[in-house]
Amino acid sequence: MDSHSDHVLGTVVVVGGCGFLGFHIVRALSQDPACTSVVVLSRQPTKNLQDGVKYYSCDITDLDKTQTLLNEIQPRAIMHTASPMAIDPTAKVHHFYSTNVKGTENLLICAAEIPSIKAFVYTSTVNVVAGSPHVNVSEQQPLWEQTSKTIPYWLSKAAADKLVRASTSEQLATVTLRLPVTYGERDNQYIPAQLAVYRKKQTGVQLGDNKNLTDQVYAGNAATAHVLAAKALLNPTLARGPVAGEAFNITDGAPIFFWDFCRVVWRAAGDTTELKDVKVIPAWLALQMANVTEGLNWITTFGSKRPKALNRLTVEFCLRTYTYDISKARRVLGYEPEVHREAVMKKAIEWEKTREGGVGGW
What are the recorded GO MF terms, alphabetically (predicted)? Predict the structure, then answer.
């Protein structure tokens, strides 16, 4: 690193630093000489803990508590990764808005009022972009409006994405990073879901013709992007273009067919199903099955719950293209992702085995 950028990060607060992505960001910061100390704010700072990091219990929907802690810490930058899981079956609509919108608003209020805070990096999602499919989507495409009929998680993240970028000022530089499906060790969403498919011996079924490309991002690459973005906000000479008030797509930059990526996980877990033995359900039939399931579910629950597995949203995700242009991140931030999917998956599966204590059908 150039001498003029030594310690450019100073003290960094990672909100949600005990989560899956938060863990990888905290680790990246801890290993970076530009960062003098890492502090984590978490509702329950009990898991994914790392040496040399300070942890505080904090609910960002509590403005007074958040202000008090940030005043005490006096960070130079905030990285905000906290959010309910998109697929959390216990999360209600108000939970998404409480954390993703109100919590983000509270952090921005604090950042604007505390002079030490100069940079704010927000972990957004590529799903803030309206419509489907997403084919090589750039950062310029319109986001969901709050009147749109789509899932609350996407709407709340779209509102926060807009809020963060609109809050950039002379005193505070902000940026949003839009991530697709994120994978790696300590993943608590995608890999566990695929392992459930493997354990139920369902890897021999495929929906659609597998011609839909999808983008993902390794959590280590996402963490690198967060660090690069924070440095660029604090020292704009490190960037090759504007960063403050901007959004950046962050992926591995290596699209893969949907079912091929699933099979990377299944193979790492030990699956030996051969492609010639895979039963392919045509796309039209899969969608029809999802419609029937949702219809029956609506009748039995009066529309209060969505079926967990075979719902239309999940089926469409298996069938449609979701790819994103990261040329802006490469050019402006100098972001160069490393792609080692098989090695990462093996490591992630081993971690999952250890977490489960060797039980659970291994």
Answer: oxidoreductase activity, acting on the CH-OH group of donors, NAD or NADP as acceptor
